[in-house]
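Q: I'm writing up a methods section and want to include an example of the input and output format. Could you take the sequence below and give the corresponding predicted structure tokens, formatted cleanly so I can copy it straight into the document?
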Amino acid sequence: MFSVRADETSKQSCRHTEKVGPKNNNSSCTLPMKYFIETYGCQMNKYDSELVAGILEGAGYCPSLRPEDADVILVNTCSVRQHAEQRVLQRLNSFKALKLERPDLKIGVLGCMAQRLGEKILVEKPFIDFVIGPDSYRNILQVLNGVHSEQRESSPKIFLNEYESKETYADVCPVRVRGVNAWVAVMRGCNNYCTYCIVPYVRGRERSRSAQNVIEEIRRLVDEGFVEVTLLGQNVNSYWDGEHDFADLLAMVAKVEGIERVRFATSHPKDLSEKLVRVIAENEKICNHIHLPVQSGSTRILQLMNRHYSREDFLAKVEMIRKYLNPVGLTTDIIVGFPGEEEDDFRQTVELVREVEFDSAFVFKYSPRPGTRAAQFDDVVSAAEKTRRLEEINTLQKEITKSKNRQLIGQRGVILVEGRSKKSETDVMGRLETNKIVVIPNTILPKGKLVEVTIVGADGVTLFGRVNHQN
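A: Here is the clean output for your methods example:
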């Protein structure tokens, strides 16, 4: 969960297409209208919240540190798994008391859950004022202007979830919390229609920003002090702006002066090309880290998932990656308990994890999403069996991660310092280009600095380092 905070937000001069809101349209934060955004789900949702914040601040709204102090509360939602939606519904209920205390408070639901459930949210939770899907954020100022208008007191609540096939928000400037890394969405939507996935239904078809537009945003980020960017897309390596593919875009971003590191997420195995991997290998600033979701080690299950590759295809991609990139951080997603997954299918997944030796894996129990094809399949895997399979792969992956980390002891690497460790104010943490976190005890180093370190210890999944002082 993320919140757009009032402290250390970057003020930007990008052009906004709409400036409808409070009468005094400026970004000096002297107006009483304050907003609070709470975000659930993936990095793309976080970026979308930054876009909405940019639209609001461009119209003169001011950020609030706490929902209790806000005039507008926005909850940006995720629908990828049932658990994510349940968390949002519980959180919305906690805002009901605020609404009872302050009837003028406006509460809106944004994002994928708003797109999927739409008016149902307004019916089941009448204290919610409006819902807006991911392609309709430009309308939020008109929505708020209407909601705040006395003429609309008896009007129906506002519901916007229309798809915009060309919407990329290319001319909207996000408001970010100042830091080291910034997210940059280079494309939106997905054309793959994996049978378990709700994303194409709530975010629409693929569309890409122009490469030049992306580069312009990244140059602004350099001016604001960011030194690392992560390029985002539901299926980022299918990027195509009519002239440039994703490998072209990566190479262009790596040439932007002032950017020290470039990352991206998330890749679909079917679209990961040799050209792309070679571009990573040829550009020092592009990090040797690829998140490549396998989902299952069984070709039969992959076919049921509509993943467009086989077990053998995936292993060939891994071999190609490791041919060009050494070292490389290779991470993945895995779903256990997919409808029809038999024990033999699961064992194939286990063996694939052993063979590939991922650096880390995000493992999930299959969660049926209404409206997807897989939701109509017979779910023959019990909840208890899903839990057993989840725990087995997590245990295996934890041992693999520990072993790979121990092999790094004594080796040198370069970290990008991100700030203080979450567990100790006296320690500094940063990331290797492979995305592994390294903690430097009892050290003071500035954020955004590239520092050479020697790995001196590995405690579980955490690496510890020592700064190499140069003569």
